[in-house]
Design goal:
Blueprint lengths: L5 H9 L4 E4 H7 L8 E6 L3 H13 L2 E3 L11 H11 L3 E6 L6 E5 L6 H7 L1 E5 L2 E5 L2 H11 L2 H12 L3
Parallel strand pairs: 2-5
Antiparallel strand pairs: 1-2, 3-4, 4-5, 6-7
């Protein structure tokens, strides 16, 4: 299971993309053991930011799991259609070299992006400062998901306050 997240983070940071790490990796970065095979990202969902993110990720070998042009992610009407018609919550990208983890980009920010961005924890990873969804927001997002793994993560996150 590829777990090297550094190339992804560096590519997005170098492209000037505003993003916040969420999901299982955020649980780990908040100090709790957790296995995860993907990287969940909340992007600033402007056309410019999404286009820059997709360009950066495709440059390092990422391809969409769905048979679509990944640049379609930048179009809010297409994102809405994917949510409505295909019941999608994330846009998944896989690494064509199979050396980096899958990326799941939220089609809609789980909370207002500016709130996630402003309250995020700053963590240094591989020489890059990256924003990680705050513990409070992570608990809210995972509780709203309601999946068993997410509820277990909520218990972990509440067991120790940072």
């Amino acid at each position: 299971m590829p777990t090297d997240f550094h190339a992804i983070i560096q590519a997005l940071a170098q492209a000037g993309v505003r993003f916040v790490i969420a999901g299982g990796v955020a649980v780990v970065l908040h100090g709790h053991d957790r296995l995860t095979a993907d990287l969940d990202i909340a992007l600033e969902l402007t056309a410019e930011s999404v286009s820059a993110a997709i360009a950066a990720l495709t440059r390092i070998g990422y391809r969409p799991m769905a048979p679509v042009d990944p640049m379609q992610l930048a179009d809010p009407a297409i994102r809405e259609a994917w949510r409505r018609d295909r019941n999608m919550t994330v846009f998944s990208l896989w690494d064509s070299t199979n050396t980096k983890p899958t990326i799941d980009i939220f089609l809609e920010s789980p909370l207002p992006f500016e709130e996630l961005w402003t309250n995020a924890a700053l963590v240094e990873l591989g020489g890059v400062n990256v924003r990680v969804v705050s513990r409070e927001h992570l608990i809210r997002i995972k509780r709203a998901s309601g999946r068993p793994q997410d509820l277990a993560d909520v218990e972990r996150l509440q067991s120790r306050k940072a």
